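Sequence only, no structure available. Ideas?
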Amino acid sequence: MNTLRDIQIVTTARIFRAFGKSGYGRRLIEGAGSTRVGAAALGMVLGYRRSFRTLGEAERAVKPYGKGGHESTENVDLHISFSARLSDYAAFYYLRDRVLRIQKVFDLGGNVGNLFYCYRNYIPLRDDVSWTVYDLPETIARGEALANSRNIKNLKFTDNFQQIDGADLFIASGSLHYFDRSVPELLAPVSRLPKYILINRTPLTDGQDFAIVQDGGHIRVACMLYNRAKLIADFRRLGYQVMGEWQSPDFRVPVLDRPSSSVGAFTGLWLELQ
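Reply:
I predicted one. Tokens follow.
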């Protein structure tokens, strides 16, 4: 990794983030980005912190400067240490009257089962609930070891998305934006769709889909910002209706070369198959 280049990008990102908070700054940055020369200049100084058309482009841009991906030990330890956040209480509201009808759960990008360990302290999961986490092989290995050490029998792990078939509840909490296909696209070929869908803590945009790189200090990862209206329309085509929506203002994403597209609060959705 080019350390000097990395320091330059991080420093420039801080300046742009502060400058883009003002109306004048936003107009200046986006005005420059509207020209070919200006866009090239922004891309050069911001490096991996600019916006990208696809998740793959963002992943390639940040790869030389990566600090470890989702499977890094530090990232796994950080997530499992979390307790319920404010946005989880919105999820509990919709789950409380439906939880006894939910036997099979499929948890997309569920890490080492942190949601399972958290949620069972707040909602009365059925004794026969089967909770399956879909994640990366390295994370699965840690999750299985942890579950075995705690003698947890109903928490399973997989890297096979087809195991979602027949699930009662599909969860994408803090994970939807790390996939290059949205949930409706992932669900389209599934023969038995889940009755309930919980999406939590995901950044949505009013413009076209695009990708950025999140720099969390301990980890740098590419993520997608999906268009909200299109996402909901795609769900409706599958037969889902949005029954609830909430915001998570404790999660936000700055878009440094397009400040007006910055996300000031992540979104949560509860959907049911009609």
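Residues 165 and 255 are 36 Å apart (CA to CA).
Hope that gets you unstuck.
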